[in-house]
Automatic annotation (TrEMBL):
Organism: Nymphaea colorata
InterPro entries reported for this sequence: BPS1_pln (IPR004320)
Region annotation Disordered: where it falls in the sequence: 1-20
Protein name as catalogued: DUF241 domain-containing protein
Secretion signal span: none
Length: 274
């Protein structure tokens, strides 16, 4: 398939020029997002990418308000219905991811407080954390399943698309890519190859997989550090082990807080457009 940039040249005769400011803004946001996707350091820029995704949704909303954009969707009941289904899936995924981030933050705070004070019941708390992580992984598996359903819709569309269809396809692909990456990080598993990589518009598979592995490693390290304390009372935990666990949780907690803020902004953005 040709690159997304080239595909924007295929448009209906009634649609405004590709220099239209609303369309240009959408293309600019897509370009910024794809630059993040192709970057080998995508993990370090992940929080920023959520802000880019929010900007993309703001720009596509303005684009779809154009009268000719609305005309282009007339008579495409199947596409509109599919878009609504995908929209609901993305909102469900955002909700589950938000809940998981909040729950993980709360558990980190409780465990860190317990380690600082030397409270009893550390084993029970670690066991509860482990059970919570298992439930979280199941929730993220549901998220990935929902995202795959959206991905199928995106990949099933043909090559001969007008501007509106192509833009909607690219925007959904961007949302799927970001939320798949985030769900995979939370669950501690590698995400599948980026949907954009399948379109051959992005960087190499090895770069994408390396970024995903690096992104997931922080939570995995925290899991290992926490579970290594199991079998000891709070007072019996070695100081070096307690410090290591706290250090790992603090590192993850900082990223969780930053991610939660950007995800909340994105969630409000798409919810306000519902």
């Amino acid at each position: 398939m040709e690159s997304t940039a080239k595909s924007f040249n295929v448009r209906s005769t009634s649609f405004p020029s590709k220099s239209h400011p609303n369309l240009a803004r959408v293309q600019e946001c897509l370009h910024v997002f794809k630059a993040w996707e192709a970057s080998p350091s995508k993990k370090a820029q992940f929080v920023t990418s959520l802000a880019h995704l929010k900007d993309l949704y703001i720009s596509i909303n303005a684009f779809l308000q154009l009268p000719l954009s609305q005309q282009a969707l007339c008579g495409k009941e199947r596409l509109v219905g599919q878009l609504m289904d995908d929209f609901v899936c993305l909102m469900d995924v955002c909700g589950m991811v938000k809940d998981s981030l909040l729950h993980m933050k709360e558990q980190y705070e409780a465990l860190r407080s317990m380690l600082r004070r030397g409270d009893s019941g550390l084993e029970a708390s670690i066991c509860a954390y482990h059970c919570s992580r298992k439930r979280m992984k199941k929730d993220m598996a549901k998220c990935l399943s929902l995202l795959r359903s959206v991905e199928k819709h995106v990949c099933s569309s043909n090559d001969n698309l007008d501007v509106v269809d192509q833009v909607l396809k690219d925007v959904r692909a961007a949302a799927v890519s970001i939320l798949t990456f985030l769900s995979s990080i939370i669950s501690g598993r590698k995400a599948s190859q980026s949907i954009f990589s399948k379109f051959r518009t992005l960087g190499s598979k090895s770069q994408n997989e390396k970024g995903i592995h690096d992104g997931a490693s922080d939570i995995e390290k925290a899991d290992v550090a926490i579970l290594s304390l199991y079998g000891h009372s709070s007072k019996a935990v070695k100081e070096v082990d307690a410090r290591d666990a706290q250090k790992q949780m603090e590192a993850v907690d900082l990223k969780l807080r930053e991610t939660e803020v950007e995800l909340e902004d994105f969630f409000r953005c798409i919810f306000s457009d519902a």
